[in-house]
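Translate sequence into structure tokens.
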Amino acid sequence: MTTTGTTTTGTTGTMTTEPAPGRARRPRPRLARDTIVGWMVLVLFVSLLSVVIVVRESLHLSVTERANADVAQEIEEFRTFTQEGVDPETAKPFTSAERLLQVYLSRQSPSNGEVIVGYVGKEGVVTISHGPGTPSLQEYDLTRDTALVRAAERSTSGTSETPAGEMRWARTVVDVRGGDDAMLLVAVFTQGDRAEADRIVQTLALVSLVALLLAGVVSWLVAGRLLHPVRLVQTAAEEITEHDLTRRIDVGDDDVSGLASTFNRMLDRLEEAFRAEQRFVDDAGHELRTPITVIRGHLELMDDDPASREVTLRIVTQELDRMGRIVTDLLALATSDRPDFIRPTDDVDVALLTVSLEAKVSALASRRWQVSQIAEGTARLDTQRITQAVLQLAQNAVQHTADGDAITLSSQLVDDPELGRALTISIEDTGPGVPESDREQIFQRFAHGEPPDGRRHSGAGLGLAIVRAIAQGHDGRVDVGGRPGVGAVFTLVIPVDETTGRLERDDQEAP
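Result follows.
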């Protein structure tokens, strides 16, 4: 025999098992914690990046708008000065362009990065005024920039790229009476303000990065805290086997912990179902073992005598019939948990159903069969299952009574305190009755009550369990009444409200 993928080394018992060729390894599952943290960090990263970009563009736009405003303000002030200003020495209007520019520039305080230059006719520069943050003459001297001068002759404003960075400028020319024209050139270098804006953006980006890391750490811890019940559920699910369903999970008080609570309740139901199934299998094995033992014993002792063989075959046939009934009842109980166990139909005539039940139960045995009440109306019921339950109750009454005893069938409408409007179908006998201590036990599978007369009756103890399953399938119940020594009353109580059915007419006592 060849074992694929398994090697054993030495005598120490060390064994290494490799996966068989062609068998795919199970991929590592994606952790929910990683997914949550990843999406949180990604969303926060995109948000912070958007904020940094918007702030940078806003600051750069603000620098540009402020530079344009400074240039426009200087030009407007110069025009106003040429119209309203007078020479402080003569107290008369200016007659010299050079004097006009000198007086005006002496009174100006250029702002950050601002340069003001005055030109007179063809003689060139008269004076220049520098504000703080402007480039030095060694770095860039705009008075020597012939391209700028030619551009100023063609246009009143513009933007130029210089060795000192971007420069935004504007010029105006005024005509001085009796003299040459005066031209004022105002330029603002935005490199310094842009650098300051970039430093602000860098600080914001650094703070955003720290916030992103902090958010990642916090979200990792919070996700671990929230998903802790999920990990507990996974661990518990791996530890649970069909032989041990006692594992439970400690739960907290948050929403996610509700998963652990639900899982615990599921385990409670599974444990109870497993125990019920185990009891069912044990009881079924016990009940089936008896007829098998009887059959085997008689077959082993059977000889060639025709009379003895006839007796043996009769006993074997009886035991096989009993086994068949047990198997049939077991199948009925096994299907009682299925959703299609009860198949109700609308508008079942309760009076006709009662009459049909009376005709069927009266054929079970020689008893004084009676009908005390008949309910009239329609209801939503599973006629076959109700008939099965009533026949089982009647058969049970037959087993606990003798020839000539009375068994009474009745149906009526009642206002039940638990179920509301309900249909009741009762089987009352004059047998030994059911003791109070046995009234719950007798509905268990394979359970046998202890009648007051001390007589045990044949049967596997499945009939009343089937009756209760049918009643519960109709959202109803089975009640046991009567007094020990006087008789027993078994009553099917089936609700007939809007969800399960209706009755259109009140009950009427049979004649």
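Note: The two ends are 84 Å apart (CA to CA).
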